[in-house]
Write a structure and sequence with these properties.
Length: about 350
């Protein structure tokens, strides 16, 4: 066993209610928050889920805002803040993925409105004090404890409608948080335990979900893994992988979870020699002996995209992307080398196996 070195542990966690059918505890959880005027948030595609929430809480619902979209445009944030103010909402329920939770965070950032999150993807946003708002095409992110949801209800039954292909990329998005958490500058023994367990739970359950998307036990295991990975994301800093994904998503408007799925094996290969202990944990959790290849093979095996060219990236943009990802110094276990990152992007663009 590796000996423990110095660390700082200073964490905040939302209250978690977990289990199949746990949406039935919604009223109890709203009572606990002392809320009487609830605004429900969702995407246009998840109005039925919002209606189910409305049916449970009845007259305590003062409105449904169904315009959540990816990356929280400032215009949408302004509208929903006005709606929450005009309705005198004292709580928002965000039912959906990272986009809907992100919209709730945009309200809380300004007003400290308590957010009760009901996640329906594996993105993990509900466990983090990280917010993101996009203005003039640029997504700005920050950390503020006001945006951390007060309560999170994880109900695996709500995951049954998430198509298998989206479940895979969303699950690998979660794995990416844990993988980078293992070699984070602020890594600590608790987060590393959660990270390895989170990767293990997702790597074992995603193939079962692909085989049978309505397997509630597999959905429970995946959601459990996503919770742990989200906690890691919220508690330690991220490095090269998240920087690359942020650049690709923000500057080239590529789909969030798919980018994470494609880039992760290559980011791990880039950092492998500089973070051997983390790589051992990831490989162990994947049941393989090489973290980067293990992630690449998992994506392949589950039918996920492995090439940026297949999700809308254009080859002529790789140089610029390498430039952006090499700017604004940030911590990474291996120094940021522009040419090596350009080569990494080329591998990810073509869908080659990770280098090394
Ligand atoms: P998403 O929330 O955009 O959802 C993608 C699509 O799937 C939407 O159309 C949604 O309606 C649909 N959907 C969600 N759950 C479903 C279900 N159970 N059944 C059927 N359809 C469902 O996608 P996401 O990947 O969860 O979130 C991505 C966004 O979250 C990005 O903007 C990303 O930057 C952000 N994010 C933020 C954090 C953070 O800590 N702040 C963490 C992760 C992701």
């Amino acid at each position: 066993m590796k000996s423990v070195s110095g660390f700082l542990f200073d964490s905040q966690f939302p209250r978690v209610v977990f289990g199949a059918g746990s949406l039935r505890h919604l009223e109890r959880e709203i009572d606990r928050l002392g809320a009487k005027r609830v605004l429900i948030l969702c995407t246009p595609g998840q109005r039925a889920s919002a209606a189910a929430v409305h049916a449970i809480i009845g007259e305590r619902c003062v409105g449904v805002f169904d315009k959540a979209v990816m990356h929280v445009p400032i215009e949408t944030a302004r509208v929903v803040r006005d709606v929450a103010r005009e309705l005198r909402a004292d709580c928002a329920i965000a039912i959906g993925g990272g986009s809907t939770t992100g919209l709730g965070k945009a309200i809380a950032l300004e007003s400290a409105l308590p957010i009760l999150a009901v996640p329906t993807t594996y993105s993990g946003s509900e466990m983090t004090p990280i917010y993101g708002i996009t203005e003039n095409g640029i997504k700005k992110t920050g950390r503020d404890t006001r945006v951390l949801p007060k309560t999170v209800i994880y109900d695996p039954e709500l995951m049954l409608s998430l198509p298998a292909n989206q479940s895979v990329t969303s699950g690998i998005n979660a794995i990416a948080h844990a993988a980078e958490g293992l070699y984070a500058q602020e890594a600590n023994p608790i987060m590393s335990l959660l990270a390895e367990e989170g990767i293990r739970a997702l790597a074992q359950s995603l193939p079962m979900i692909v085989a049978d998307p309505v397997d509630v036990a597999a959905r429970s295991d995946a959601l459990y893994g996503a919770w742990l990975c989200g906690v890691v994301l919220g508690n330690v800093g991220m490095s090269l992988h998240h920087k690359l994904c942020h650049t690709l998503g923000g500057s080239y408007n590529l789909p969030h979870a798919e980018i994470h799925t494609i880039v992760l094996p290559h980011a791990l290969a880039y950092n492998a020699a500089a973070a051997p202990d983390a790589m051992r944990c990831i490989a162990r959790a994947l049941g393989t002996d090489d973290a980067a290849m293990g992630m690449y093979e998992l994506a392949h095996q589950l039918g996920a995209p492995v090439a940026l060219k297949d999700i809308g990236m254009r080859e002529q943009e790789l140089d610029c992307c390498a430039d952006i990802a090499s700017q604004n110094a940030y911590w990474n276990p291996r120094p940021i080398e522009r040419d090596a990152i350009r080569a990494l992007l080329d591998d990810a663009y073509c869908g080659r196996a990770p280098a090394g």
